[in-house]
Every structure is written in C-alpha cells, then in structure tokens.
Specification:
The protein is an all-alpha fold. The protein is 81% helix and 0% strand. Helix 1 packs across helix 3, helix 2 runs antiparallel to helix 3 and helix 2 packs parallel to helix 4.
Length: 113
C-alpha cells in the first residue's frame, strides 16, 4: 500500500515539475518576443533618425563593441527625441557624438612602483 502512495506522490511531483517547466518556457518565450518587438521598434527609429552612412558606421561599431553600440543606439534615440540635434543624423554628426562620448571616458594608468 505504501508503494501505491509513493507512486502517486511521485506522479504528482512529476506533474507539478512539468507544469513549472512549461510555465517557465512560456514566460521565456514571451520575454523573447517582447525583446524582439522592442528591437524592431528601435531599429525602425534608428532608420528614421540616421542616414545610411551613419547606420553603417553604427553597424560596424556593433560588430566590434555590441554593448557600447547598444548604449549608443539608446543615446541617439534620446538625442533625437529631445530635439538636441537636427535630423537625420549624418555620419559626420555621429563621429562628433562618438568623439564626445570617448572624451568623457576617463583613462586610468597604472604605474608600478
């Protein structure tokens, strides 16, 4: 009789675990879809605010430094939405923005004594 109870408990545990895994999978799929939709919207906005040459430069940066490019994209969208720069942003303007960002970074030199 205890074997039946153990088998039933085991089956119940298996069902709960399966339900949890399915719920987690559905949630992960939902997050991925949302992330993809946000990426599509971001790319649409960038197509509107950047010239072809500037988009190409941004794509090159994204290949080398994806995290930096992600931050840059968000900054460009913010700049465009606040109207701080005339649109569309051309390659020369993007170079100037990049130069400003690079000049804001602090360089640390370590000297051994």
């Amino acid at each position: 009789m205890s074997e039946e109870i153990d088998a039933e408990e085991l089956e119940l545990i298996k069902r709960r675990k399966l339900a949890q895994l399915q719920k987690a999978l559905i949630e992960e799929q939902r997050r991925a879809e949302l992330k993809q939709q946000l990426e599509i919207k971001k790319q649409e906005i960038l197509r509107q605010i950047l010239t072809t040459e500037a988009r190409q430069r941004l794509a090159n940066i994204k290949m080398v430094k994806p995290e930096f490019a992600e931050q840059l994209e968000l900054q460009l969208i913010q700049i465009a939405q606040t109207g701080r720069i005339p649109l569309p942003i051309n390659d020369e303007q993007l170079k100037m923005i990049l130069a400003k960002i690079q000049s804001q970074k602090r360089e640390f030199k370590i000297r051994r004594i």
